[in-house]
Every structure is written in C-alpha cells, then in structure tokens.
Amino acid sequence: MLVTEADYLLAAGEKKMKSSESKGAAATREVGNKRSLDIREHVEQDDYRTIGSPFVDDAKMTARNVNVFYDEKQAITNVSLDIGRNEVIAMIGPSGCGKSTFLRTLNRMNDIIPSCRVQGEFALDGEDIYGEEQDTVLLRARVGMVFQKPNPFPKSIYENVAYGPRIHGLAHNKSEMDEIVEDSLRRASLFEEVKEQLDKPGTGLSGGQQQRLCIARAIAVSPEVILMDEPCSALDPIATARIEELIDELKENYTIAIVTHSMQQAARVSQRTAYFHMGKLIEVGDTKQIFTMPAHQLTENYITGRFG
Amino acid sequence: METTTVFLVLILLTVISFLTGRKRSHAVTSGQGGARALHSLPKHYGYMAGLWALLPALTVLVLWLLFESSILASIVKDDMPGELWQMSESEQGLYFNQVVGYARGATDADMLDPAQIVAGDHYRALAESSRVIKALLVFVIALLGALLAIRRIHPKLRARNHVEKIFKWLLFSCSLLAVLTTLGIVLSVLFEAIRFFQAIPIADFLFGLQWSPQTAIRADQVAASGSFGIVPLFVGTLLISTVAMIIAVPVGLMSAIYLSEYATRRFRAFTKPVLEILAGVPTVVYGFFAALTVAPFIRNVGEALGLHVASESALAAGLVMGIMIIPFVMSLSDDIINAVPDTMREASLGMGATMNETIRKVLLPAALPGIVGGILLAVSRAIGETMIVVMAAGLSARLTINPLEAVTTITVQIVTLLVGDQEFDNPKTLAAFALGLVLFFVTLLLNIIALYVVRKYREQYE
Fold first, then answer.
1. Nearest-CA neighbor of A161 among A184, A142, A141, A140?
2. Collapsed DSSP state (helix, strand, coil) of residue A36
3. What is the pLDDT of residue A87?
4. In degrees, to the nearest 5, what angle opens at C-alpha A257 toward C-alphas A215 and A83?
C-alpha cells in the first residue's frame, strides 16, 4: 500500500517537474493556451460530459442527472455518479466545487437547508432516496455521516455512541447497549484509549480522538454507507494517519464516500476518485489512473498542484 | 452665566482645542517630512488637546454644581441671627426654604419677616458671584488644560497611547459610577431598614403571619395596633409569580424552539419584532387589561362552575403577568438555542434523529444553562412587578395559596405604604424599606441559584 502511494505521488510530481523544467515556462504557457483551460475559468459548455467511468456494475448508491440549487444559484450541474459496494470513493476538487454539496445530497442532509433545491434520481440499493415513501430517519440510519469538524455531543463518551442506537431502538437492555458501544468504539479503534473514562465528556478528548468518537457514533447504528466530509481537515498528521488506517479497515464492511482537500489522502485511502470543478463532475476513474494519467486537463492541473 | 451656556462654551473650547492640536501636530513636523514623522496620527494629537481642555474643566463644573447650594446655604445661615437655631430642625428647613425661594424670586417679600429678606438678599448676591466665579474658573481650567496639552505636542509624543489611556479611565469611571450608585441605593435601603428593625423585632417581621401596617400617627387616632408579619406578602408574591411562570415558561420556551428551529425566515422576521413590541407595552396597560378584562372574565367563568372567585384574584394578576413575561423568556431562550452550534444539529440529524429528538436530547441540554438563567431572570421580574398586581390582585394581605382569592405582594405594599399621609420616623413608612431589602435579597438569592445551576448542569460545547 505504502509503495503504491509513493508511486502515485512520485508520478504526479515527476509529471509536474517535467512539464515545467524540460519545456520551460514559456512552453508550458503555450500548451496551456492551446488547451485554454485555467482552473479558475468557468467551464463554458452546458452539455459537458464526465470523462472516465462514473458508472460501476455493482453500485451501492446511484445518482443520475443531479442538479442542486441554493435559491437561484446552481451549485451542482448535471452530475451522474455511482458508488460501488464496499469501495472507498474520494471526491476532490477546489473549494466551492460542489463536492460537499453532492455528498450531502446522498443522505438528504440538504433537506435541512431551506434554500436548497435538489433535482435528479438517487437510489440506495435500487430504492429511491428522494421518493415519497422514503423516510429520512431510516435513510440516515443506513447512510451515516462524519463531518469536517469533530462534533461530539456535550455528553459522555458512552452517551455519544449510544445516541444513535437509542433513537433507533437498537438495544433492548443495558447489556446490549454496552455491547454496541464497546463494539463501535473498537471498530473505530478508540476503545483501548477511552475504556477507563466512558463516563467522561466526549468534548474532553483530543481532536483526533473526537473524530474517531464521531466515527464510532456513526457506525453504532450499523449503517451501510458512511459519508465523510473532509474528516481530517481539522486534525494533525498523526491523527490523520489513524483515521486513514481506520477508513482502510472499515471498507471491509462499509461503503465509504470521502470528500477531501488532500490529494495524498485521496490517493492513500480510495479506490476510485471523482474530480469536481465548478459544480460539474469532470472526471471519474480508478484512483491510480486519475493520479498518474488524468485524461482531462483540469484534473491534471489540479492534481499536479498547478492551481488552487 | 447660566450653566447651559457655560457647558456649550466648554464644548466649543474643546472643539477649538482639537483643531488647534491637530494643526499644531502638522506645524511641529513641517521641517521633518510632515505627518510621517509623527509618532501618532494628527487626530490623536487633536483628541489629546480636546480631552485635556474638556475633562478637568468638566470635573470642576460638576463638582461645583453638586456642592454649590449647600455651601451657599451654610454661609448664609452662619450670618443669620441666632433665633433661627432655637427652632426645631424641620421648622428650620422650612424657614430657610422661604429664604431661598425669596432669593430666586419665587416667594413674595410681604410673606416673610425682615431677617429672611436680609438673608435672601445675601443669598442672591452670593449666588450671583458664584455663577461668575464658576464660569471663569471653568474657562480658565479649560484653556490651561488645552494650552498644556498643545505645548507638549512634539513628534515623539505618544499621543495615541495617551488618548487610549484616557479613554480606558473614562470607561472605567463610568462603570464605577454604576456600581457606586447601586451600592448607594442598597445602603440607603439598608440604613432605613435598620431603623425599622429598631422599632419592630426582625423575627416578628420575617415570621409574623399578620400584616396590617396601619398604625396611629397621632395619639387620638383610631387605628390597628400595627403588625408587620411579612409571610402573607411573601406567599402572595410567590403565588402570583408561580402562576405567571406556569404560563410564561412553557409558552415562551416552546415558541422560542419553534422560532429558532422550525419557523421560516420570513415568519421569524415578522414574529420576533411583534413579540418585542409586546415586551415594550407599559405594565400599567397590562394592569388595567388584567383588572378590567381578565379578572371579571375569570370571576364569571368561576361562577359558572360554581366556584367562589374574588373580583380581584391572584389568578388574574398571574395570568396577565405571565403573558407579559412570555416575550422575555422567548427572546432569551431563542437567542440561546440559536447559539448552539449548527454542527450539533447536523450530527444529530445525520444519525437519523428526528427534529423532535434533536431538540430534546441535544439542543435543550446544550442550551439549558442559558435557559435556566433566562427563566430565573424572568422570575426576578415577576417578583418585582408592581403595576399589574396593584391593579389586579387587590390589597388584602391574606395568607392563602388559593389563586382564586385576592392576595397582595411585597411590591404592592411598598406602594401603599409610601402613598398618602406619612411620617418618616414611623414604622409604617420605614416598613417599605425593610420590604425593599427583602426583595433585594430574594432577587440576589435567585441570581446566585441561577449561577450555581448554570455551572452545575452545563454541557459544554466548544
């Protein structure tokens, strides 16, 4: 795993170096002009087509022709994307590109924003997510979410993890609840660190521990999919490494969609990567391919760190 | 010169000093590259000069105004014939008031004796020169201050730091003023209350079950013996406050939850100001609403149910007081619930919790300290509320917990004690101060409890 990571990064780095050094700065600009794609420019054409392979055979979740508006402003334009079973898919792109918005449409978290309007077809195991008979309570129990900033409740560690099972009535007595809490904390590889202080407030933990507590809280209701919205952006590198290891373990049992600003992270943890730009899904493909041979100029510009 | 004129001229001097100071700061650096060579901005030098002109002179003016009349009076009194000192203290005051009245031209000379007229003329002459000296002194000090400051202006002078420091002390003295005023009020209440407790034992006051403060002022008057037991008043206050809180807390809290969590932005933008208007209605208006509309309504309903309801009842007063407090509770709770970070809502909703569960299990516990604080503030208001109770709850100090009967409260009794004929060395009048002291301590106690609760049950979010 480590070797491949390094390969991706090396490859990306080499590419950048080659283009800037061997051809020289003027030549680069020429190439840029010819293809006329600055990352800060608007993608003009309306009927753009996503490059790569947005669809998979064994899809856990599917999204088709998604448009999202905040009042009059369009945040996402005609995005179609599948999320495969037990895969980790990374969504990358510059700030404001709509990747977080897209993630939040998957468990209808955008419902709580009054100005937000979602169009398109979404399905979880073939079941319509935005359908009449869909209940957000049950949907969110199946599609859990971990947020950018660790947000444990101001309750004890135990109560934080027990919150979900309680509201969904998953445990019938104290010992079952204890079991769920311990199991979830173990899966989030936090149990050993906190087993002596389960009754202490969750807000007293360190940032990385808090985020693992939030992951434990999310998996306590046994979701099928976990959405992670930049889960490491508020953490230091060591805590980030723990979370990344954890994601790697979790993919055995869960389908994971992760939004990240760190391309190294996307390269390390995901099998597929989707590149968003200005509300459009530019390119999707195997992570290895995206980071070594991006097909679209915008993707290449972004992953080589030329812009942003 | 009139004080207003002195004040206006002082302001003018301040402005001129500001302009001069600013100009001077330019002048002192003219050879050295202009304003760039200054330590501070030119306006800071201006502020410095202005403040130096204003503050010392203003202090002198205020002190002069505070002590002017008492100093004048003592000078005039010293020069008056000795017969004055044979009168009793209150007669002296009256006698001298006529002198001052004559000096100001409010009292006719033919009503006074010659000694008073002499003293009055003396007083008038002194007041005249006092006015002139005051004006001159203020102007001289202002000019001196300004000159001193302007002369000090130099490129290296740290005028900005100087001005910042003056402002810090200015703000500090304002807060000190507020604290000292409060302290003064408490002390004056305390001393009068001590005088009361010299006449009535403190235990009788705190634990007595009878309240009938009508004592005889003259020996030949027929009146009650005067018993000052506070318990009926206290129970009446608590009864009415309880009724008020039973109305205000649930309605206020729930409407706060609705407004902050469910209401659309437009509804909220419309409703909050309307409720804040409700909070601004003078309590006397609530009072006659309670007395003329609610109390008869309750009596009629009670009679239809076969209950005996007094025409002025604790229920009517409490109900209306509750309505008065609703916006108070609502506005405070709304602010506090809004202050709970959105990440908490997202976390809970993202787990599949309903809005209801999120509110009950996450938002309210997180907002609890603030809500409790708000409710206790509301209780303080209910206990201190006067007008509604005066008009709607009656005056009879009955020891009862039946909200359908007329009761009275501490505040109402303070009003009745201080209205009408009274003497200031009579326990009846002094009782008002003792009641005030009790109110003060109850409110203080509530605030301490509030602090304790807030600290103990706080669920700390970042």
1. A184
2. coil
3. 92
4. 140
Q: What is the DSSP letter of A195?
A: G
The closest of A31, A63, A61 to A276, measured between CA atoms, is A63
ipTM of the complex: 0.78
Best residue of B351, B354, B460 to probe chain A, by most A CBs closer than 10 Å? B351
Q: Which of B157, B190, B211 is the last residue of a domain?
A: B157
Distance CA B414, CA B308 (A): 29
- Give this prediction's pTM: 0.72
The CATH number of the domain holding residue B276 is: 1.10.3720.10
| Same domain membership, residue B263 and residue B133 | no
Chains A–B, number of C-beta pairs less than 8 Å apart: 75
Range of the domain at B398: 227-456
Query: To the nearest whole angstrom, how far is the Cα of B335 from the nearest Cα of chain A?
Result: 19
Name residue, tokens 């680069």: A28
- Please indicate whether, in this complex, the C-beta atoms of B352 and A167 are within 8 angstroms of each other: yes
Q: What is the pLDDT of residue A272?
A: 94
Give the residue from B136, B157, B178 where a domain finishes: B157
B303-339 residue pLDDT tens: 898 888 877 888 989 999 999 999 889 988 998 898 8
B353 and B444 share one domain: yes
Q: Supply B227's token pair.
A: 């018993």
Which domains, ranges and CATH numbers included, belong to chain A?
A: 46-296 (3.40.50.300)
Q: What band does A8 get if pLDDT is binned at 50, 70 and 90? A: very low
Choose among B21, B11, B58, B20: nearest CA to B157: B21
Query: From the list B347, B349, B352, which residue is nearest A153 (CB)?
Result: B347
8 Å CB contact of A151 and B341? yes
Judge if B382 and B266 occupy the same domain.
Answer: yes
Rounded CA-CA distance B138/B7 in Å is 9
DSSP-derived letter for residue A221 is: T
A140/B362 touch (CB, cutoff 8 Å), yes or no: no
Is it the case that residue A44 has pLDDT exceeding 60? no
Please give the Cα distance from A33 to A26 (Å, whole number). Answer: 11
Calculate the alpha carbon distances from B179 to A29, B171, B172, B447 in Å: 70, 13, 11, 17
User: A288 to chain B, minimum CA–CA distance in Å?
Assistant: 31
Give B332-370 pLDDT, tens digit per residue. 899 889 888 888 999 999 888 999 999 999 999 888 888
